[in-house]
Amino acid sequence: MRIRTQLILAAFVLAVIPLAAIVTYSYHSSRRALESAYRHEAERLTKQMDRRLAGIRAELDQRLSVVSALPLPADKSDTGDVGNIVSVMGDAASFVDSLEFHPVPKEELDRIAAEAKKSAELAQLRTARPRIVVRAQHEDEANADHDPADHDDDADDDKTEVAQLGSTAPAAPAQPTAPASPGLPAMPTPPAAPMIIDLPQVPAVPYVMSEEQQELLNEISNVGAQLGDTNLDTEDREDLQKELAQLQKRLRAASEKDRVQYRQRIHQALDVARQQQRELMVRRGAQPLPLSRKAPLSPNLQPLPVPKAAPDATASAPASATATLAASGGKPAPTANIRALTPKDAAKSAVQDEKTALILGRQFKLPVRQQGHVVGQLSASVSPDQVIRRILGASDDGGEIPFAVDRAGNVYTRSTAERTQLDRLHIPERVRRGENIKGIQGWIVSTSIDAPSGMRIGVARPVGDNLDELQRTAAQNFGLGLGLIAFALIGIVPLSNHLTRDVKTVIEGADRIAHGDLMTRVPVKTNNELGQLARAFNRMAEDLSLNQMRLLQQERAQKEQELQQRLLAVEYERKSVELEDARAFQLSMLPKEVPRHPRYEVAVFTQTATEVGGDYYDFRVEGDVLAVTIGDATGHGAKAGTMVTVIKTLFAGYGAATAPSEFLGDAAEKIKRMELGRMAMALSLGRFEQRTLTLASAGMPPVFVHRAATADVDEIVLAATPLGTLGVDYAQTDVALAAGDTVLFLSDGFPELMNDAGQQLGYAAAMEAFSSAAKAGSAGDVIEALEAAARRWHGDGPPNDDVTFVVVRVA
Questions:
Q1: 157 has pLDDT over 90
Q2: 325 DSSP 8-state letter
Q3: CA 377 from centroid of its chain's CA atoms
Q4: Residue ranges of domains in the chain, CATH in brackets
Q5: Is the Cβ–Cβ distance between 99 and 352 less than 8 Å?
Q6: Looking at residues 715-740, what average pLDDT do you find?
Q7: Of 106, 347, 85, 294, nearest to 197 (Cα)?
Q8: Does residue 603 register a pLDDT over 90?
Q9: In this structure, is the dihedral angle defined by the CA atoms of residues 388, 393, 394 and 399, taken in order, positive or negative?
């Protein structure tokens, strides 16, 4: 293929591929942004429905707990308490169809009443007791000449008389209600039989309890908890029952006052709702309803037709669960009604409680207490349809479909069309099986699980239409780009002819040069890339002739380099032998084995950084005296080995009677006279005798002593300069040792050991490692623990400096 054709094709391909990439990237990025926005919106709506469900559950808990603390109506004629219940329920009343009260058995009520009556009689006796005491005091004042002891006996007799009177009083027959007494108010009479209170359907008007009601409810709860204590005596229980009766009376009065205000707010809300319904019917062209409070009301949702039962598998589910929720309008709001609980009501409540447990996670049943005694149970019959309608909310123009699926697999939507759409996408089926719902083509689905009820709440939102629009736009942009590319190709053809005009001349010149005609020159005068190429060929031909001479010179130099490498290999082998000999000589300077002493256990460890290290240790045993020395020569290699040899020779003449500080001073003087240059040696010398360590040091790290009795570590530091430097005077110190104490001599290679990050271990960490290792059973175990600590910090490679340990444990 000619180069001109290649240029044209390259221009076309290099234009089409970026265009396709840009259009594709733009489409996919726009699609991801659109799906992300819809997904965030669906998640926001799902969280909003979660908050609605949690709010309804919390509101029902709060309102019903308040209702359980209110006095219940004793019969159908007691409507005042019903009004208080309705007002306290507030906007939560729209979720409750009725309240059921189930009293405890009559025998239990009789027993409670008998206890209340007995408490009242005891309260009367205590009320009469002060008069007896006062009379006794007056008698004592009138007979002041009597003996005080006699007065005490009289008082005791009076007390005994009252106690016997209370204990021998005949018990009255048990009645449902205890009679009132001056000291203790009568216990309120609870309903004798199960009853049901149908709550009126009123607009959702928020009800906020006053601070007085909140305080009274808190006090009633505290008093009720105290009455539940079985260890209370009779007098304290009577006082608490009196206080409880007063608090309930005050709560009833406060609720009655708020009920009047709440009913006024309800009537105002009813008037607003009727006015809105009238305006809606006028806009629809229907006959408006009169503005009367007896006119029927429509709920907040728009009325929708009730769907027929589907013939599929969902038809077997409960009607209110599988059917689509629709608003029910045109039904007049009922009024409060108190009636006896029938078996039909009980069966209906059981079914409704089962549905409520599926949606809200539990049933709403609370105990009813009077003066600390449980007199019955209050149950709320919650309307599942109202709860679901509030959770899913009203429809809007976003196109999303909110839905809910309970534990039993029942599906809830706002309309039949939405349920049909979900079934077509198999979303309910996937949710029931717990499958992934993120891969539905053209839809964004977000779900969450309500933990108390296990119900899945979700939102499905369509995005298919928007994606189709994006695809059409991307196709239009791509077609427009192709048209622009085709127009550009018309100008590329003459440009390619001009660019390839001198290509033939360059090809011919290159062919002659390839055949060995190094004197060939390409006659191209242009300054473009082809001209530069021609000049490059000309330079290449000129350089090739020079390179021929250079090749000969390079070949000769290569042979000389090979000869030099062979000489270096021989020299390296010779030095390796010398270093190995030096290493063997240095190791010969160290003891072949550790000394055995009846009073001390000794163990050592050393690891060099190079072939010939600078660390040194040695021992001398004379009678009962054990001498231990450890040193570190400056540098590594042959010079360090020389210094180690000098110290080994000097230590060979050390006697047990010589003090460690004296030996160091003498050694420093002799090394200076040797004029070894800058070579120096840090050295520590310790003499163990009769459980006493005499220590002297010349520039070595501290010596650590682990106390077996206290598990503490003592750091012995003696500041001095190394041998062969300025100082010749060295101090020494005595350290008392006890059985089990462990002494560690170490070189600076351990605390200065570096890890992979270039950090040094440090003396504090070295002391901590020794404190842990010294708990081992023997000196050898201590060495192994220290070696393991060094390996954990540095790794298995050679250390950056020589590491040496000498451990001495007192037997």
A1: no
A2: P
A3: 41
A4: 80-283 (no CATH), 506-560 (1.10.8), 590-810 (3.60.40.10)
A5: no
A6: 87
A7: 85
A8: yes
A9: negative
